């Protein structure tokens, strides 16, 4: 038996810039045990990422970007090192990631 998820409650808390939801769901584990979870989910939509590899230098290409969530959690400058990524914005993942790689 695989794990199953049953949605119990989905309440929108905010729909300003993106959607913040309060979700309650039951997770039925493989052994039949049911565990109820309550989570706040910030839904920004789907995205795509790419790990670019430079075969000449044998290195990967990463970007350094400010992320407010890390700053409020005591990362003094709020900067993260990450792969090139972006939100789909109604594009196919391949189209989105080409734009991000060029940017």
TrEMBL record:
Instruction: Enumerate the Gene3D superfamilies for this protein.
Output: Nucleoside Triphosphate Pyrophosphohydrolase
UniProt entry keywords in alphabetical sequence: Hydrolase, Magnesium, Metal-binding
Give any single GO term for biological process. Answer: ribose phosphate metabolic process
GO CC annotations? cytosol
The entry's Mg(2+) 2-binding residues are 100
GO molecular-function terms, A-Z: hydrolase activity, acting on acid anhydrides, in phosphorus-containing anhydrides; metal ion binding
The answer to keyword Hydrolase applying to this record is yes
Which cofactors must be present for this protein to function?
Answer: Mg(2+)
Q: Where does Mg(2+) 1 bind?
A: 85
Q: Quaternary state and partners of this protein?
A: Homodimer.
Biological function: Nucleoside diphosphate sugar hydrolase that hydrolyzes GDP-mannose as its preferred substrate, yielding GMP and mannose-1-phosphate.
Q: What is this protein called?
A: GDP-mannose pyrophosphatase NudK
The species this protein was found in: Salmonella enterica subsp. enterica serovar Braenderup
């Amino acid at each position: 038996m695989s794990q199953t998820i049953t949605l119990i409650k989905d309440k929108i808390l905010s729909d300003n810039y993106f959607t913040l939801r309060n979700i309650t769901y039951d997770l039925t584990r493989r052994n039949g045990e049911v565990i109820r979870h309550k989570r706040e989910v910030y839904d920004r939509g789907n995205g795509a990422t790419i790990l670019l590899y430079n075969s000449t230098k044998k290195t990967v290409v990463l970007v350094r970007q400010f992320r407010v969530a890390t700053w409020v959690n005591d990362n003094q400058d709020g900067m993260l090192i990450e792969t090139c990524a972006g939100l789909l914005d109604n594009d196919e993942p391949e189209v989105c990631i080409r734009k991000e790689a060029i940017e």
